[in-house]
Amino acid sequence: IVVEILQNMLSLSENGQRDYYESDGCLILSHLLMKSDDSILNYSLYMQFFNLFNEVTNVQLKKQLFDVILMNVDLWIKCDAESHRRILRHWNKSLVPTFSEIAIQLRSFSWVLSTLRAYYWYSPIEVNIAMVVDKRCRNQSLNVKDCRNSMMSIAEFISNIKFDENEFKTFISHILTCTDHEQIVDLLSLLSRIIKEHKNLFEKVGQSVKLIPLLQYLLNINNVSIISSVFSVICDAHKFNVFNDFSLDVHIDVILHNIAPQVANKAMLKSLVELTSFVPESFPICGWVAMNIGDEGVRSMLKKLKPNESFTTSKFWSFYPVVALY
After folding, report:
1. What b/e readout covers 87-108, taking b as 16+ CB neighbours within 10 angstroms?
2. What is the mean pLDDT of residues 276-282?
3. What gap in Å lies between CA 111 and CA 90, rounded to an integer?
4. Which of 39, 117, 135, 294 is the most buried (most CB within 10 A)?
């Protein structure tokens, strides 16, 4: 009812909209919603505000409504899990791309990264960052993967319009400092996607692009998904000429001399065989892992990988398989 009254009132005149903006009407309404019973917050209410937003003509009021109500995570995280998932999908498919000018002014790539880490964790292990469990969507089971996909698509959209050196540094920092392994894999996947589909963005980050090799420190985390994702990002960065100070084969050789043999296992080999099928230049990595597993690893690699002339692009391509034979 309140939204309908606002809708009728604000549609009457430009003066009414200006007065409502100057009196911080949306901020007051947002505060009241935050203090209200959570049960009134749902996707239906969100859509009522979105319809109101579409009818507002005053630019400043429109921005205020967008900022403190429509795209207020602290507000909509209080609604039920399914409503919240649908709201984020609406942000991604409609709100942000349709009103991109406002979205870019009020939300940044870094904001999305911080929001992902604080609200859309897989496990609340970062106690000083993650939102308390019982406050997220009424402690209901939230489809975190779907929510994160929506938010990462928004991040990718924003980056294609507004992205700079500081944003990139923040991105790498989140990847290196996050302790939730599933989140790291997601962020590496986003970085790989940006490299492959929006490599022109790296012209804006200057020398900071050289931070990408720092990701190799994640290789000593005993997590197959992270290790495979890091190798994938590094291979993509070379393949799409994000940096060219040194070749991929030299980079791989440096990495393999600094990675602990203990991380090599059958699951990692399986994942890297799949990577090598698409990025044959990564064959030395497979050889190294197979060698550290032993005879069974080498046989498995040879059985699953079909001969490819591209395997020989690195001058070190045969080193580890040959060593493994002895």
Report:
1. bbbbbbeebbeebeebbeebbb
2. 82
3. 18
4. 117
